[in-house]
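User: Okay, second chain of the day. Same drill as before: sequence in, structure tokens out.
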Amino acid sequence: MPDNIRKAIGLILLVSLLSVGLCKPLKEYLLIPTQMRVFETQTQAIETSLSVNAQEKSSEAFTVEKDPHEIKVTGKKSGQSELVYDLAGFPIKKTKVQVLPDLKVIPGGQSIGVKLHSVGVLVVGFHQINTSEGKKSPGESAGITAGDIIIEMNGQKIEKMNDVAPFIQKAGNTGESLDLLIKRDKQKIKTKLIPQKDEAEGKYRIGLYIRDSAAGIGTMTFYEPKTKKYGALGHVISDMDTKKPIVVEDGEIVKSTVTSIEKGTGGNPGEKLARFSSERKTIGDINRNSPFGIFGTLHQPIKNKISDKALPVAFSNEVKKGPAEILTVIDDDKVEKFDIEIVSTTPQKFPATKGMVLKITDPRLLKETGGIVQGMSGSPIIQNGKVVGAVTHVFVNDPTSGYGVHIEWMLSEAGIDIYGKEKAS
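Assistant: Same drill. Structure tokens below.
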């Protein structure tokens, strides 16, 4: 076959393939999911205008409703079944459907005070001691680095800063070294440290700045009414000096009151200024500090006085671009509802923190805060009557916009498995 004929045939085939690839029916066929999950009593829609019949294989797990633009699947009973599509009586595709036990959570929005206690004591820096041999930091000489956690001294567990001083003075008086067990990331390291006498004060020191707790404010995202398990903040709490996540031994949350707002501007994120409530009553504990927020158990139910009814939750694939709302506090302890736009959303198969891009559209919130400010992290996002996620980070150069995390990952971190099984805390 001559080359010019061969090239012509190839060109025709290429054009044909491109035409087929751009064909709307084929695109819609390819977009029909092969798997989906839906909660009992809840409905999910599969967008398609294809002229196909869709039927449930067993008629027990879910029901199917077809209209010109979508197929609606409503969960009836937990279990698995198949959604079968046929065209002119011939099966063309199947979707495996998993119906999960009904799950609803109560959205938050309340401003909370957070107090974290770390495992051991955290090294946040070094200081030089005036010794008889000149200025030095014994801790730095021992190979300790900022971000290390001292969990043992001479075989004894270290839980708070007050535990450290007696060991230092005893070792200094006897001239012995301290045997330290250090946690560095996922490693445990042993080292020896010799305290040095501060010539100016006459006391023995180790030349380290240490801290055993941290405090701040954030926003409650949700709690599950049966177990009282909650999630808040939507992002990890890191130490202000080392920038590393705080490894939590325990902690607590209290009510807090917003006293004023430092408005955000381009290049300068704003901030909620708040104080812990005067009674300082603990309303819940903290047992996990993860990339998706802080988690624990409430000691008592809390109300936002605007949306205290349990709402369904949405999987990441259900979240759509378009209008939504957030619940948050900008004055005192009053939770209010504000309009936002979900600019983009990524259906995630695996946990990831930045699942949505958000834009504040509410004129009053823009006027009062400039957009997303520090302390707003954790504000629940509600779309079409479902809790879909939480506000996490602001764009530094555009305070009107920021990121959101999908609620399904926060539920899992809280110990509430979306498959209906509780995970150990």
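The first helix runs from residue 3 to 21.

User: Thanks, on to the next one.
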